[in-house]
Amino acid sequence: MSEKQKKRLIPAIKGTKDILPQDIRKWQKVEAVTKKTFELYGYREIRTPIFEATELFEKGTGQTTDIVIKEMYTFTDKGGRSLTLRPEYTPSVVRSIIEKRLYLQPQPLRVYFMGPMFRYDKPQKGRYRQFHQVDIEVFGEKDPAIDAEIVEMADALFKKLKVTDTEVLVNSVGCRRCRPAYHKELRRKAEQAGERLCADCQKKIMTNPLRIFDCKVKTCREASKGFPEITDYLCPECEEHFSKFCSYLDLYGIDYRREPRLVRGLDYYTKTTFEIVSSRLGAQDAILGGGRYDDMMKDFGGPDICGIGFAMGLERFISVVPFTEKKEKFIYLACLGDRAKRAGMELARYLRRDGVECLIEYKERSLKSQMSRADKLGAAWVLIIGEDEVKKGLYQLKEMATGMQRECSREEIMKIIQESS
Ligand code: HAM
Questions:
Q1: Architecture of domain 11-178+234-319
Q2: What tens digit of pLDDT does each residue of 89-104 get?
Q3: Candidate of 13, 71, 117, 293 to mutate for ligand 1, largest count of ligand atoms within 8 Å of Cβ
Q4: pLDDT value at position 78?
């Protein structure tokens, strides 16, 4: 390898993003408001590993989903086990609830989580290979009031963060009792459509015909227009659940649109499914998606406990949250000479101990140059420390916004700064 090759920058992986210091405040604010909102509804945080046994997602997310068929980051570890970086969170939570016997705690059990997910999808605006989700899950509540409560919680979060131009889409995908009859009819219609469906959709006729509604190919979209709709095939229990869910959304005054083609890209849903989309996002317009999955816990070998939840894509959400950066409130210590530098180091330690953000730079510079550095960096105050100041124990504090300057002791500096914030 040549010297030039050795020094070549190794770039970030396609579909991943650095979240830079200039953007982090927005992320931190959104994360904090989100956590606070969820906690208000009784959710508590859970954290599970980033990788799990591949089988967990094959079984949970589903063998016929795009995620499992083509998007998983799967690898064999040194012990020969097949592991997968989580593409979504729901199967991991269910695994943890069963394994740690959290289902023995009073139900409904409400948990939330925030963290990175991994999907090998084609990167584009709003679609990444590593992205972040906030996810909530509720276990052990059959009442459709909870379905409406989680949509209301998302709505409350959107309102708190002043996110507008969104639409709530809702549907019911039925259950194991009513879906077979619907699938039969859907297959019949899809077979009749024959060549008008793409090769992928023709395969889906046998594996999971519902997924045909997800296809973006124009001819498939056209052909599927005449296909039967799941909501016409719901059993009385699913029908009642769906109508109550909608009536509770009405009660909350939440606008929504019934979208019978909203099947969602995951295999586990039963009854309610929903998404919140934004007209500001372009092709990847879903900010949040979720639904009920009443069979997963028992299919994983756990007790027969129902579940419901949603996940929100943080990159997409943050891109529609309006944000005005709060001015940083820190003090720049301009030290002139070695004695002043030592005094400045001590002073910074004293101020930081009580929560005052300080910046002290160690390169020797003139006062003029330090003032201009402080200005460029956005300091709210500059504390000038020279030989005389050190002797007197009194320093020159300059407020950058007004240009006002006064002599203060370290106690006075602390008081002025604390009172101003
Ligand atoms: P999902 O619809 O696959 O659902 O993902 C939820 C959200 O994650 C999407 O609405 C989107 O905002 C974001 N998202 C998904 N893929 C990407 C990507 N490649 N790049 C950027 N953002 C993305 C689930 O994951 C389910 N586990 C939700 C759930 C929880 N259902 C029940 N409980």
A1: 2-Layer Sandwich (3.30)
A2: 999 999 999 999 999 9
A3: 117
A4: 98
